[in-house]
Amino acid sequence: MGANGSKPVDRSRRVKVIGAGYPRTGTTTLVLACEKLLNGQGLHGGSHGLAREDEYNRKCYELYKYRHDKPRVLQLLKELTEGFVVTSDIPFFSFVPELCELYPDAQVVYVKRDPKTWWRSMGAVASNAQTKFLSMLFWPVPGWRWSIGTATLAFFRTQRVYTDNDLESMERHMQSVIDSVPKDRLHIVRLEDGWAPLCKILDCPIPNEPFPKANDAENAEQIFLNMVKRSLTIWLYYVLAGTCLAGSGWWLWKNFGHRV
Q: Which superfamily, per CATH, for 2-214?
C-alpha cells in the first residue's frame, strides 16, 4: 500500500498517526502496522520519494525550501498527506508540530531505537545524501532529481536545530518532539513490544497475525547503488545520442555542406 509509494485511493481519509522518529528508526514497520490497524494507506516519505511522480518530490523539496513560510508549509503538507492515515520518515519527521496543527485528532508516535544501532544505519545514508555530484547525476530521472536536494535540506535543518548529525542527534530530536507535542498526544514506543502499544494508542484489537518487520538498513545501500546505476545508464544514452547527432551533423556538412 502506501509504504510502497502508491498514490492515495480515498482522499477523504485523514492522518491518524504522525510518525515523529528519524529515518531508519522503524519508520516502514510503523507504517505497515498502522495500515493494518487503521485499514488505510500509509505515507512513508522515503519510499514515496523513490516511487512517486515528479510533482510529489518537488513539493517535498519545497517544504524545506519554504520552511519559514508557515501557511505555505501547511498547504504543502495538506496536499502531500491527503488520503493517508499515517505519515513517517523524510520529510514528515521534520514537520511534526505543523502536522499536529493540520490534524488535531492525530496521535504522535515516536519509535525509540538504540542510538548506536541507528547511527550505523543512518551514517552512510547521511553521507550519501550530502554528496554534491548526486544532484546532477539524478537530474534526468523524474522524482529523483529532487531527492538529493530534499535530503540535503533536511540534514541542513537538522544541523541548524540540533547542532549536527551525529550519535546524539536522535536524542536531541526526541527532546524537540517532547517539547513541541502536547503530552496527551505523544506516545514513545519500542517496536520490540509488537502490536500492544499501537493497539492501545488507537483503541483497537490486536490482530491475529505477526507484527510486521521491515529492515530498511539491509536494502538502503543496494537501493542507492541501483539509483546510481540507472542514472548513469540514462546519462550514457544522452551522451550516445548527442554523439550520434554530432556525428550525423558532421557527416552531412562534410558531404553536402559545400552545396549549400
A: P-loop containing nucleotide triphosphate hydrolases (3.40.50.300)
